[in-house]
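FYI - complex with flavin-adenine dinucleotide, inputs then prediction.
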Amino acid sequence: MIPAAFDYYRPKDVEGVIALLQEHGDDARVMAGGHSLIPMMKLRMAEVPHLIDLQDIAALKGIAIDGDTITIGAMVTQHELINHDGLSAAAPILSEAALQIADPQVRYMGTVGGNIANGDPGNDMPGLMQCLDAQIELLGPEGTRKVAAREYYEAAYMTDREDDEVLISVRFAAPTGGYSYEKQKRKIGDYATAAAAVQITKAEGKVATASIAMTNLSDVPVWSEDAGDALVGTTCDTEAMKAAVAAMLGDIDPTEDNRGPVAFKRHVAGIILTRAITRAWDRA
Ligand code: FAD
């Protein structure tokens, strides 16, 4: 299908974006890589009379690793995440997850900011950012503010971001210990039936900390504090993993769709989380 007619803007700085968002209100939307927004416009599920392209805004680009703090600009693409040498060493879970998003063509265009801002429960970056305890930086008419990724998502396609705010960057402490991003999908290029992001640190042969987040198993990403707590102080033995899976299953709320009925999704979620914990523990 062909999208409805729209006016196209390509400002050179973020202030220009904010001014356009203030001028046009609900009728304006920003576009990053366009690989979620344009399909929605073509299907006429999103009507955007004023489309603001972020491609020319240098301030939204770039990856900075400053000591143990990592900052990723909103317009960094998934391809750049995978191919950035420093980032792959400092936070390897990012490239492991990004490599499981769609296909190379989508990853050349799809951005970190667009993936986080979109609010689609099937997007992989939101759960990953919750696992890493990232802070999301937003800029609006009143200035900047930060929101924890674990508090950013309200419902499907509903986030804490106001209509006149732009997602600028995402920031987190470089993770330590073992990691894993496991994803079950129907075929290459598909969104997750279930995905799990896991970071584990080890001390004296036992789990010191564990962070677990699940994707596409509720209308928002699910950071399961209880699942992580179930592993702490254990040797990640079978009983501990079963306890973590049971805790995670208490936190998710999948619905039936073309990826399967609820019982199937819960079964897959358990298997995927067990695999992710096993691999993260082996790497810790
Ligand atoms: P856009 O489409 O440009 O924008 C998406 C939304 O976010 C829009 O509402 C836009 O207004 C808003 N937005 C964008 N940037 C900002 C910003 N800086 N500030 C405020 N709001 C902003 N994703 C996955 O995670 N996993 C997958 O498996 C996957 N498979 C895919 C398969 C296909 C065939 C396709 C086409 C896409 C797939 N995607 C998948 C989605 C892809 O990763 C998208 O690129 C991503 O979700 C959105 O990024 P974008 O840069 O294209 O954002």
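Residues 29-37, 54, 74, 101-102, 106, 109-111, 113-115, 117-118, 123-124, 166-167, 189, 191 surround flavin-adenine dinucleotide (CB under 6 Å). The chain has three domains: 7-53, 58-173, 178-283.
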